[in-house]
Specification:
The complex is a heterodimer.
Chain A: H1 3-23, H2 32-46, H3 52-63, H4 65-68, H5 70-73, H6 80-85, H7 87-112
Chain B: H1 2-5, H2 8-28, H3 37-51, H4 56-62, H5 64-76, H6 78-83, H7 85-90, H8 92-116, H9 121-127, H10 134-144, H11 148-172, H12 178-200, H13 202-226
Helix pairs in contact in B: 2-3, 2-4, 8-13, 9-11, 10-11, 10-13, 11-12, 12-13
Classes of the chains: A mainly alpha, B mainly alpha.
InterPro entries (chain B): CidB/LrgB (IPR007300)
Subcellular location (chain B): Membrane
Main location (chain B): membrane
């Protein structure tokens, strides 16, 4: 691994750590990683785009984003009974719910962009 | 043998191989949206656990380093948000109004329908994040008392539905503006919808891409305030 990638990863981890610190504040509505994202975003705005190491590390992480949700996603094997029990509600929410939200969003944005 | 199968080495290697196999399958089949690498990756890991009769908790403990990096990826999402800042500022008002309504309708319609058919709190909380990108959905679901694996499944199905049916629905309901098409694909269908949005055109894709971070952040703040 190139030295710069390690530097970039360390910088991103610092923002993750800072997000985790913010999470400790009582009444904080955001989970640590999302606060970390906001802090990283603000850092990029303030520094006019940051530096190449952290941008490169971020691009690497994002290009393999799907890898990182496999462990959590695989937990679906433990939830078979729940899925069967609530099959109707889940199907309705995912199909009809998504259609309602999709059409509303598209038409509202089109109307506002006239 | 069972010590080996319950070791972190096995869990981590299995996860990486499942991801690579998912990627390979996605490429050779011509990238259909229902074969997202993560869908086949999760299916391969799940099938392996079932076939070898392994405990999910033990696997998750072994693969916890990969799960930890999910937080790091979430932080990295700040980069695309920054890169789209110019477009966000040029369309600030329509974007903010659409986002404000879209987030409420997306989470509200889904949880409302599920609630009507009688559901428990944890399942409702797992449904509330269905339109935001998976890494954010997992963090939010964890913090509001849902099941992260269920949330992941709901997010994937929602994204796949938007990618597969979004184009025809936009055509039938008469939506032609690239910004409107992009916002619908990205705010409701997150990253999976965005892949499809880029195939509709670069402007549609750009609006879809910026919608992912906006919708994620808005939903996270909203649910965080409503469900402390």
């Amino acid at each position: 691994m190139k030295g710069s990638v390690v530097t970039g990863l360390a910088i991103i981890l610092l923002f993750q750590l800072a997000g985790l610190a913010l999470e400790q504040i009582p009444g904080m509505p955001l989970p640590g990683p999302i606060s970390g994202m906001v802090l990283f975003f603000l850092y990029l705005v303030i520094t006019g785009g940051g530096y190449e190491p952290e941008r490169e590390a971020a691009r690497h992480l994002l290009s393999h984003m799907a890898l990182f949700y496999i462990p959590a996603g695989a937990g679906i094997v433990t939830l078979g009974a729940l899925l069967m029990e609530q099959a109707l509600g889940i199907t309705l929410a995912l199909t009809l719910g998504t259609l309602i939200a999709f059409v509303t969003t598209a038409h509202l944005m089109q109307w506002l962009s006239r | 043998m069972s010590t080996l199968l319950n070791s972190p080495h096995f869990a981590i290697t299995l996860t990486l191989l499942a991801y690579l196999a998912g990627h390979g399958l996605y490429r050779i089949t011509g990238k259909p949206s229902f074969l997202q690498p993560v869908v086949s990756g999760i299916a391969l890991v799940g099938a392996t656990l079932l076939v070898l009769d392994l405990d999910y908790g033990t696997y998750m403990e072994g693969a916890s380093i990969i799960h930890f990096m999910l937080g790091t990826v979430t932080v990295a999402l700040g980069l695309p948000l920054y890169q789209n800042l110019g477009l966000i500022r040029r369309h600030l008002l329509p974007l903010m109004v659409t986002l404000a309504v879209s987030g409420v309708v997306a989470a509200g319609s889904a949880t409302g329908l599920l609630w009507l058919t009688g559901s428990d709190h944890a399942t409702l909380m797992s449904m509330a994040t269905k339109s935001i990108t998976t890494p954010m959905a997992i963090s939010v679901t964890e913090s509001i008392g849902g099941y992260p694996p269920l949330a992941t499944g709901f997010v994937m199905v929602t994204g796949i539905l938007v990618a597969a049916c979004g184009g025809p629905v936009l055509r039938i309901t008469g939506v032609t503006h690239p910004a409107a098409k992009g916002c619908a694909m990205g705010m409701i269908g997150h990253g999976v919808g965005t892949t499809r949005a880029f195939e509709m055109g670069s402007e549609t894709g750009a609006f879809s891409a910026l919608s992912i971070g906006l919708m994620g952040l808005y939903t996270a703040i909203g649910l965080g305030l409503l469900m402390p």
